[in-house]
Request: fold
Amino acid sequence: MTTTTSGNIAASTRNHDQVITEQFGSTAAAYLTSTTHSQGADLQDLAAYAQQFSQPVILDVGCGAGHASFALAPHAGKVIGYDLSSEMLRVVADAAHERGLDNLEVQQGSADQLPFADATFDMVCTRLSAHHWKNLPQALAEMARVLKPGGKGIVIDTSSPEDVLADTYLQAIELLRDNSHVRNRSLLAWRALLTDAGFKVVHDQSWKIMLQFDTWVARMRTPGERIVAIKSLWDSAPTEVRGYFQVQDDYSFSIDCVLIALEK
Reply:
C-alpha cells in the first residue's frame, strides 16, 4: 500500500469518526432511555457469560449509553466502557454513579485502536455498535488481541438477511436514517470476519426486534426529507421484502439481531 493510499484511508476514517461523534454526541441521553437498547434477553445472556469467571475484567467496546456495561458490572471485578463519543461516556459515568456501580470505568477512543496491552481482559464484548465501525476487521482483531487466552468474546449486533434484495433495502434505509451507519452484516459474514480476526466461534443465536418507526427516527434526529425517503422506499419495496421486515402501516419494522459467543 502506498503512503498516499494509507493517508487517504486514515483521513477517511477520521472523517467518519467525526460523523459518529457529531451524531451521537447530541443524542446520547436518548440512547440511555431507549427501550431498544436498555431491554432485551441478550443483556441477561451477557451477564450469564460474565458469571463463568470470578471477578473478571471486562471491556465493552462501543459501549454507547452503557447498557451492556450496566448488565455486566454486578458480575465483574472491573468493567471499562469504551466509546468514541465523550458525551456518551458522560452519560454512562453519571448513570453508573447513580446505580452505585463503582467498578465501572469509562475511556474514550476508537474501536480499531484499543489502548490496552495484549491479553488484558477476561472478556470483551460489543453490543449494537459494530455496524457503525468503518474498519471492522481491524477492530475485531484488536478485540482478539486484548483478550486473554481462554477468555470469552461476545458480539451482539443488528444483522442483515442473506437475501441480496432485502439486504439492499435494509442498508439504504439504515443509511438514510443515520449517516454514521456503515453496514449490517449477515450471520455468515460475521462468522467469517470473527474467524479471520483470530476468534473461535462457539455459539450463535438470532432473533428479531420490532423498531417503532417514530421513535427510531426521532432518536437519531433524522431530517424530515430523509424520513419521507425512507417511507417511500418501504412503500415501493416488493412484497417479499416488506414481508421479511414485517413492515407495519405506521412504517415500524422488524430487524434481525445476532449474538455470537467467542473464545480465543
User: Anything to note?
Assistant: Confidence is low (pLDDT under 50) at residues 1-13. The longest strand covers residues 147-159. The domain at 3-160+182-207+256-263 is CATH 3.40.50.150 (Rossmann fold).
